[in-house]
């Protein structure tokens, strides 16, 4: 059971790295003047290409981790874990890629609330 849980979390982590890139990398590339001349539909297609990689990890993560498939997590637990991973990946990405975007105490408080959500969703 532990192996499926760790595999699920690792796949969710990789999935969320790709999703964060699909959602936000174009903003960094645009501000760096690398794709500023691209029309919006090209940017959308570029992001969809990255998102396809995200789905290649997200779908297996959910299949492996779901309790009805022999995994350790309920559907709600999978979703809450995914949201916390998403926020963590986003924070790292935004700090590295957009260094002028500071995170404040309210962002930390929101993250703590999400971690508490994970705690509560696992309580019986």
TrEMBL record:
TM stretches of this protein: 7-26, 38-59, 80-98, 104-123
Domain of life: Bacteria
Annotated InterPro entries: DUF486 (IPR007437)
Protein name: DMT family protein
Source organism: Sutterella parvirubra YIT 11816
Protein keywords: Membrane, Transmembrane, Transmembrane helix
């Amino acid at each position: 059971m532990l192996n499926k849980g760790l595999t699920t979390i690792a796949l969710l982590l990789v999935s969320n790295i790709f999703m964060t890139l699909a959602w936000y990398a174009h903003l960094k590339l645009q501000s760096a003047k690398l794709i500023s001349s691209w029309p919006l539909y090209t940017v959308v297609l570029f992001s969809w290409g990255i998102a396809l990689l995200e789905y290649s990890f997200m779908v297996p993560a959910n299949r492996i981790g779901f309790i009805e498939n022999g995994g350790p997590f309920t559907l709600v637990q999978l979703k809450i874990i995914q949201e916390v991973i998403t926020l963590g990946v986003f924070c790292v990405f935004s700090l590295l890629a957009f260094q002028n975007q500071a995170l404040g105490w309210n962002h930390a408080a929101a993250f703590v609330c999400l971690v508490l959500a994970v705690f509560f969703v696992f309580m019986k």
